[in-house]
Amino acid sequence: MRAVAAIGIGQTKVDEHWDKSLKELAGDAIFAAVQDCGIDHIDGVYVGNMLSASANRQQNLGAYITDWIGAKNVGALRLESACSSGSAAFRAAFLAVASGEVDIALAVGVEKMTDSPSGEITASLATAASADWEADQGLSFVALNALLMQRYIYETSWKHRDFANFSINAHANAMHNPYARFHMPLTEEKFVNAAMICDPINLMDSSPIGDGAAAIILVPAERVSGKIIRVVGSAAATDTIAVHDRKHPTWLSAAERSSKTAYAQAGISPQDIDFFEYHDAFTIMAALSLEACGFAERGKGPQLALDGAIRLDGALPVATMGGLKARGHPVGATGMYQLVEVIEQLRGTAGENQLDKAHIGMAQNIGGSGSNIITHILRND
Amino acid sequence: MRAVAAIGIGQTKVDEHWDKSLKELAGDAIFAAVQDCGIDHIDGVYVGNMLSASANRQQNLGAYITDWIGAKNVGALRLESACSSGSAAFRAAFLAVASGEVDIALAVGVEKMTDSPSGEITASLATAASADWEADQGLSFVALNALLMQRYIYETSWKHRDFANFSINAHANAMHNPYARFHMPLTEEKFVNAAMICDPINLMDSSPIGDGAAAIILVPAERVSGKIIRVVGSAAATDTIAVHDRKHPTWLSAAERSSKTAYAQAGISPQDIDFFEYHDAFTIMAALSLEACGFAERGKGPQLALDGAIRLDGALPVATMGGLKARGHPVGATGMYQLVEVIEQLRGTAGENQLDKAHIGMAQNIGGSGSNIITHILRND
Hints:
2 copies of one chain form a homodimer. By secondary structure, chain A is of the alpha/beta class. Chain A is 36% helix and 18% strand.
């Protein structure tokens, strides 16, 4: 397959965009990406979205968004894999270019969640879990993650307070990201005293929902001259849809599998990753991701937060623009935000948050309670 | 890209399957397809579905179905483009094999519609149209098609009765298809006297919804010995999401575009197509498809039905196993049913409905009111 380069990026602020429709949000991100790279047409459109059927009463987003941006008559698809829908769209666009099917692919993730009553959104988010064994029994997504965190704390003897730095780091990094939903520093005291949501997960363990869109333009690498951002790893893996069906519920086997495949594609090992945009929907997911991807030993994920290794000046910076926790988690768009942020770092345009060493970046997007995980590795040359 | 062959097919009867869940339906089709070709593993799963978020409160179908069939840890995706979701899944599977990304791809379309109140299904189907300009104004899908049919009759001076043979042919062909929802012959008298749904569309212009699943296994053609069914054309195109935004509402430009691309890929012209599994959700769509794909002159589609050209013994057999009209239209699965039926004909296993000449078959799947159209051409060698 052909080498693929990311040449254009665009994003909207994650926020409550009551004045913008779903297509306007997507369009804002797309037009920014198009302007960023100056292309004059698009050959294929790949849309990541999870909730529009219920939250916006609009499906068929491939045609809907392609129509809105005036790219009539190109092929267009919507990809859905719950909260990893964004990177599913990126992966489809990547494969379309890599295979030679299209020359200029547009991937966009979009989600508009804040127009709907929160109870409806909670119920819709639960469609990512097993309807039969989880959602219909009353388990919301935060409840599933709370069970995982309870189990993890029981198995490892970490305390809830030990997860504080995951959120503190995310909030610190979001301070300088104009597209982040939150611009407020977090302290350990605020973290431990935050309102309880579902024991042991409190408000400061949890990422906020939001409206937003992020877009990336991909082309064959051979068409790019000068500095180039390459997609060197792209892999997806699944696990059981219901958490209780897993032999080891606190091990994200699909994260392990997809990251190992991506490392092999890129010809690298975890030690070569300069920074990691992980899927910190809840602090427990941050810890589990670090372990499954080979950055921490099993049961030792929180140590990286306690040590400060995850900070911008640490050995493995994570959530460098705020992560899901503080940039926000517009679910079907999140994977695209992560990838846009990786590209900002690789370009050296991450502003106040720019890393000194940003040569190889990884983004990992988790759908369901770890049931559909997609990992990408990008490199600048 | 590599040549791709279809080696396994499976389908369930289109029916009211109140005793089967969404995953059981999908599993039945998948296990039939696996048994059909005797593979021992799957490398990638591509699921076409439109309505599960609302009708089944289950999304994340890539992981959900992959888990159910025991193919843990492979990459899996759900594709959605309204009523063309089925062939979107097939196209994704085809591209995955063609590109070399996977060696054994499973495409499955599944929809379970009959557990929900029909008003809910009608509202959910309307999410394929423009929420802003069509659905939220009260236009259901049948209403949109009725407006198109009114306009077409006004432009062409055909009478409603002239569309009868589209439905009569479909019902005749379904008589010998055990997987079809309807096994009842239709006469012109029954057609013209059927209950009015939305003038001029009556019950016998309309395809029935249903529950069902259909699956196909794709592999590189080089791995197949002996008789082989190749995918020689695969193309998608979009049009405006709202019908009123089209300069010529009665011309399916995305059907024209995607079929022309597919003809070019296959190195053929419309005259080389031996049979056509078209998207006869309503009789008006049958006529418009024949015209846009080059089988009839503009405004002359119904002539092919009046002449009998569309029958099994005609010049261009269509809906050879009953079409959407009589096999049934489980929306997100329909595209996969069409392709399974093409493969049955190309294999020579279409039973009583077997065509004498079935060397090149075409399937076309329409999402929205023509907003997202996907065309495939398959050939036996």
